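Tokens as discussed.
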């Protein structure tokens, strides 16, 4: 049984302990203490199991945020793990709590990559720094993003009393041109590239491609990345989408699920994960529209979803974390 499976067994077992403790006297100080010990044990074992996420046997992505249908409550967050490092793409509200709540080792955070420098993508950036700084060896956290990233980071550092040189957030603006990728990180077989398209450059959006020993993941936020040259032959593309009905009601410029499907087919993408739905019904509509457009390998991204690309084969494994 793998570590993730063991974690599930531990959870079930400890759930029994929780309920048993409640029935046998959780209202007493002794019962409450027993429950606290059981929960601490579960948290420790889950954290140990999650260390397997950082093994160098696969390229992985974790959905740690979502987007409301009307885009009024967007909380984008995706974590990509490779070569023993974690990169977070967009720090939407609640990102730090979601990751810490699932006992993801935040000390492994290498950098934050922003698809846009707006508040929606940066709302939890300071909290991510605070949570990760407790166990990270480096007191500086690199933040990559569009040109506006520098001003935003300067403001956060000033508010927190950080200098941005020895402690705090450190902004980097790769400034890719349409059709030309810029490498922002390269080490131990992992290459992370920033890119943009003509449409996204106009709106200040950036996409990212992760290449790790023959496997690849592309993350685009709300941008139109599937049709970009950087997305060609990608194993997995994670991108926000909207339904055709919503597109008719709100002309936000975001790609529809059907448009993404057509582009994915042309780009020879392996799997598309749509991250723009706020509820199960909206997710089902988006997936149905994408498949009706002729691309079958599409799923809806939900918080806690793990996408795993083993290095020793061409499989794409999708399951709850």
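Sequence:
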């Amino acid at each position: 049984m793998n570590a993730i499976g063991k974690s599930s067994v531990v959870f079930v077992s400890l759930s029994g302990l929780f309920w048993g403790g409640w029935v046998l006297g959780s209202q007493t100080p002794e019962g409450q203490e027993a429950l606290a010990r059981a929960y601490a044990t579960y948290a420790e074992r889950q954290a140990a199991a999650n260390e397997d996420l950082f093994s160098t046997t696969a390229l992985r992505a974790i959905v740690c945020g979502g987007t409301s249908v009307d885009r009024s409550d967007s909380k984008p967050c995706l974590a990509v793990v490779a070569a023993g490092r974690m990169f977070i793409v967009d720090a939407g509200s609640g990102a730090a709590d979601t990751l810490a709540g699932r006992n993801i080792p935040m000390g492994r955070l290498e950098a934050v990559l922003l698809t846009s420098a707006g508040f929606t993508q940066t709302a939890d950036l300071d909290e991510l720094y605070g949570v990760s700084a407790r166990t990270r060896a480096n007191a500086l956290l690199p933040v990559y993003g569009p040109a506006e990233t520098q001003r935003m980071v300067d403001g956060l550092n000033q508010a927190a009393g950080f200098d941005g040189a020895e402690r705090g957030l450190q902004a980097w603006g790769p400034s890719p041109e349409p059709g030309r990728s810029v490498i922002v990180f390269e080490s131990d077989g992992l290459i992370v590239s920033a890119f943009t398209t003509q449409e996204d450059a106009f709106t200040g959006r950036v996409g990212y491609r992760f290449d790790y020993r023959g496997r690849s993941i592309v993350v685009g936020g709300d941008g139109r990345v599937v049709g970009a040259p950087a997305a060609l032959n990608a194993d997995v593309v994670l991108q926000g989408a909207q339904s055709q009905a919503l597109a008719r009601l709100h002309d936000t410029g975001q790609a529809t699920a059907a448009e993404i499907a057509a582009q994915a087919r042309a780009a020879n993408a392996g799997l598309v994960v749509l991250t723009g739905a706020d509820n199960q019904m909206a997710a089902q509509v988006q997936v149905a529209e994408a498949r009706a457009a002729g691309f079958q390998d599409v799923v809806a991204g939900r918080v806690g979803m793990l996408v795993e690309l083993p290095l020793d084969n061409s499989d794409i494994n999708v399951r709850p974390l």
